[in-house]
């Protein structure tokens, strides 16, 4: 066998989010979350990625049932009742780690209570015990688009500084409860999404905002402070734990070698890495301070905020990587839909069924660039291919396209490690089919495990192993040496 390029103890596994797999939205004392209010819109009727609620009127209409009753993230794929079966399948693949999130409103149904919901805490005890039975290390995201809806309605989410206190209380409950079971933590999932989708990222309804950009960055400051306080609490409660941040990485290439395009790519990179600059380096980068000054944005900070950010940086940096982007110095350049929100098409790359351009080599590029910049361990906690899967007449699912996608990306991770980058692990997104975050579709499948359910909730929920299931088992067994 070819010698592995991956270090001993590399954390192979898969990743999901509570709001996309658990279901049981009204069981176990759970309150409503922000994603519980996102309805399914068929692809042919969809004008954009449908995951952000814009106004109070829209939210009230959703609560009143005026926009239909198909809320896919409320049903998930019933992990809440089937977690033992699912974890056994993860163990069969040989998972070393499982990245999952805890549903904030399952622990604090409204978010601002003083005491947690014991039934919710007990559920995650059972999940962690099941993982540890198979020696699978939990990697837990504290907030993965799971803000309690009450905090949106009462406080407009992270716009209100009081939410810091609620988040820190919630985090401390988790650290104290699970200190013997969880050693790897993440604070906020894809924290930069707040700048693109304020409701999902920060729990803010934009019709309540006098100045949307000002409020977005103020809310982000509150999240940065909350993250630093959570890092401190984690280190105090679980000294041997590691806690990281998480970014939706958007590697940007200049469209041409024209200096304007090169500068545009640099600025896109600075905007994307601003979030990790604060959480890893512990201070606001000068590029964003200049941006704030130029655009009249004034971040209200309390005495001690800057010292807190500097004193409690994260231990490692994790990120999602699905595609690269193209930047142009021409502001009138036409944008193509598909690449997450929109972007300039890269003529050298193929695209997925959903228009996400496939760029394995970009993963090596971003690993090397980020390690050069930060010199902290990196963790790829989301990478995968959303595609239509077909169940053959014999019951098999031949997803060779997913194997090709992941094999090419993992190969580039190995190349980055060979170049000197410290990478902790790789958790493929959607190790089991789940509800898509961006479109609420079930038909956009990512998993190694097929779940019999359609976009409207019809199906038996039976689990089936895809061809990629057996392939990934071989990858893990060989510690990444065998990618064929």
From TrEMBL:
Top-rank taxon: Bacteria
GO molecular function, one term: beta-glucosidase activity
Gene Ontology BP terms: carbohydrate catabolic process
SUPFAM superfamilies referenced in this protein's UniProt entry, alphabetically: (Trans)glycosidases (SSF51445)
Active site: 382
InterPro entries: GH, GH_1_N_CS, Glyco_hydro_1, Glyco_hydro_1_AS
Pfam families recorded: Glyco_hydro_1
Membrane-spanning ranges: none
Assigned GO CC terms: cytosol
Record key words, sorted: Glycosidase, Hydrolase
Family according to the record: Belongs to the glycosyl hydrolase 1 family.
NCBIfam families: PRK09593.1, PRK09852.1
Protein name per its UniProtKB record: 6-phospho-beta-glucosidase
């Amino acid at each position: 066998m070819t010698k592995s390029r991956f270090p001993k103890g590399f954390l192979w596994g898969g990743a999901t989010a509570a709001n996309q797999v658990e279901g049981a939205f009204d069981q176990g004392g759970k309150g409503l979350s922000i994603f519980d209010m996102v309805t399914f819109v068929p692809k042919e009727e969809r004008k954009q990625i449908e995951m952000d609620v814009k106004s109070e009127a829209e939210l009230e209409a959703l609560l009143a049932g005026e926009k239909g009753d198909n809320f896919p993230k409320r049903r998930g794929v019933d992990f809440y009742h089937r977690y033992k079966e699912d974890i056994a399948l993860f163990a069969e693949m040989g998972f070393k780690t499982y990245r999952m999130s805890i549903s904030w409103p399952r622990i604090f149904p409204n978010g601002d209570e003083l005491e947690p919901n014991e039934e919710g805490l007990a559920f995650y005890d059972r999940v962690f015990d099941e993982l540890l039975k198979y020696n699978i290390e939990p990697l837990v995201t504290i907030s993965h688009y799971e803000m309690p809806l009450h905090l949106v309605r009462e406080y407009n989410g992270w716009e209100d500084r009081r939410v810091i206190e609620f988040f820190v209380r919630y985090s401390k409950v988790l650290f104290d409860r699970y200190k013997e079971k969880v050693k790897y933590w993440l604070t906020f999932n894809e924290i930069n999404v707040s700048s693109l989708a304020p409701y999902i990222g920060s729990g803010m309804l934009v019709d309540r905002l006098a100045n949307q950009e000002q409020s977005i960055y103020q809310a982000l400051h509150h999240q940065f402070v909350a993250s630093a306080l959570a890092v401190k609490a984690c280190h105090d409660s679980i000294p041997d734990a590691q806690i990281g941040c998480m970014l939706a990485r958007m590697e940007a290439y200049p469209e041409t070698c024209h200096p304007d395009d090169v500068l545009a790519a640099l600025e896109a990179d600075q905007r994307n890495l601003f979030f990790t600059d604060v959480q890893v380096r512990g201070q606001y980068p000068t590029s964003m301070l200049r941006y704030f000054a130029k655009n009249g944005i004034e971040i209200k900070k309390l005495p001690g905020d800057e010292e807190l950010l500097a004193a409690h940086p994260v231990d490692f940096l994790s990120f999602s990587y699905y595609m690269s982007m193209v930047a142009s110095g021409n502001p009138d350049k036409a944008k193509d839909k598909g690449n997450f929100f929109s972007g300039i098409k890269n003529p050298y790359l193929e695209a997925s069924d959903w228009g996400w351009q496939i760029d394995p080599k970009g993963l090596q590029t971003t690993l090397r660039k980020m390690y050069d910049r930060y010199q902290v361990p990196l963790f790829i906690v989301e990478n995968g291919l959303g595609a239509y899967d077909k169940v053959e007449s014999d019951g098999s699912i031949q997803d060779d396209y997913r194997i090709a996608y992941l094999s090419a990306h993992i190969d580039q991770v190995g190349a980055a490690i060979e170049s000197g980058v410290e990478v902790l692990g790789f958790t493929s997104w959607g190790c089991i089919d789940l509800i898509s975050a961006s479109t609420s579709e079930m038909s956009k499948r990512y998993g190694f495990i097929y779940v019999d359910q359609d976009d409207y909730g019809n199906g038996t929920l039976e689990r089936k192993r895809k061809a990629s299931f057996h392939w990934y088992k071989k990858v893990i067994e060989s510690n990444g040496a065998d990618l064929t």
